[in-house]
Amino acid sequence: MRGTVVVTGGSRGIGAAVVLALAARGVRTCFGYATHREAADEVAATAADLGTPSIAVRADVSVESDVTRLFQAARELGPVTGLVNNAGITAPRSKVVDLDADRIRRLLDVNVVGAFLCAREAVKHLTAAGGGTIVNVSSRAAVLGSPGEYVDYAASKAAVDTLTVGLAHEVAADGIRVVGVRPGLIRTDIHAASGEPGRVERLRGTVPLGRGGEADEVAEAVVWLLSDAASYVTGTTLDVSGGR
Ligand code: NAP
Question: Is 60 in the pocket of ligand 1 (CB under 6 A)?
Fold first, then answer.
């Protein structure tokens, strides 16, 4: 894998695992975070211990100028050849009947507008670099719908899946592949952030493999999709969900 990879939401969870999996292979990353600077600094320090430089940039993906700045910062490490469009949020369990507009808008702002803005910047940089790969982090929720939990979140991830298909066709001739992963129940802080730290344990019985997944297991799929080993894969999204 050549060049620099931009990873959004790289300070914790799946994004941090991606940064470190890439660092272990000598791939430099410029990764974004929203507020947790200490966590971001720790990830950058661990990447440095692995012998690979990285840059952590505070950048809210729903803010256009932040996204532009994130990609500009990445150029300090060399041409950008990859994006892992990973930053995302959920929200407390709720039925559709109880949703309000502010909550739905915030989910769509971060998960959809943010993903589009990052993809747009990536297309510019990857085209200039002669090609590359965009990996969109979706969710199995996009297919399952998350009834009684967060249909709005699920719908935001369905939009990400559509971005993967449509953009892949737009930029294939420019040497850019656009692919996705749909994680299932993965042990990260995201469940506590939406008010249910025990969510993975509550639902583990619904997973054919009988357990929640680890962030590293998603990161390995992302690394493969970014790599030349996946050179004929585009416009599709891989489930990483233990069969759920
Ligand atoms: P997480 O542990 O909560 O980490 C979220 C990351 O995104 C953090 O680095 C956070 O930065 C960053 N972030 C949050 N809002 C942001 C914003 N507005 N702008 C920029 N960065 C932002 O989440 P995760 O579980 O690793 O989830 C990563 C992705 O996987 C998300 O897209 C999520 O929807 C998806 N996913 C997760 C699961 C799961 O079970 N965990 C399942 C399916 C899909 P700070 O550290 O600064 O807050």
Answer: yes
- Can you give the C-alpha Rg of the chain in angstroms? 17
Burial-class residue 64 by CB neighbours within 10 Å (0-12, 13-18, 19+): middle
Range of the domain at 49: 4-240
pLDDT of 148 above 90: yes
Kindly report whether the global pTM for this prediction surpasses the value 0.85. Answer: yes
* DSSP sequence for 112-135: IIHHHHHHHHHHHHHHHTT-EEEE
Q: How many helices (H) and strands (E) does the chain have?
A: 10, 7
Total domains present in the chain: 1
Write down how long the chain is.
244
194 lines ligand 1 (CB under 6 A): no
CATH number for the domain spanning 114: value is 3.40.50.720
